[in-house]
């Protein structure tokens, strides 16, 4: 039996995160994944940036960006520190 597409390269977006096929295969397993929110003050974006900005692990491995950094870039952050800062800014604007 093959592993689901979200666990294989065909379900992953080369720029980070999952592609539509990957999200569809995850949904078939009971997960509820949505497409990335690349800009704006959506609370989901702030939550993702805060969560991923605090993830352990390197941003680069062997000179190449890791999946973590690629995902952050897909959501509009250039680094883990930038992700944390953007999350704070978005959350502050949403509280007004």
Work out the helicity level.
Answer: 40-55%
Inertia-based shape: globular
Give the helix tally: 4
Strand order of the largest sheet: 1-2
Beta fraction: under 5%
Strand tally is: 2
The overall average pLDDT, rounded, is 92
Write the element-wise H/E pattern from the N-terminal end onward: HHEEHH
How would you sum up the major sheet? 2 strands, antiparallel
Structural class: mainly alpha
Distance between the termini: 51 Å
Gyration radius from CA atoms, angstroms: 14 Å
Q: Segments where pLDDT lies below 50 for 5+ residues? A: none
What does this structure look like?
Helix content is 46%, strand content 4%. The protein has 96 residues and is mainly alpha-helical. A two-stranded antiparallel sheet has the order 1-2. Strand 1 and strand 2 (64-65) form a beta hairpin. The longest helix is centred in the C-terminal third of the chain and has 16 residues, at 80-95. The model has no long low-confidence stretch (mean pLDDT 92).
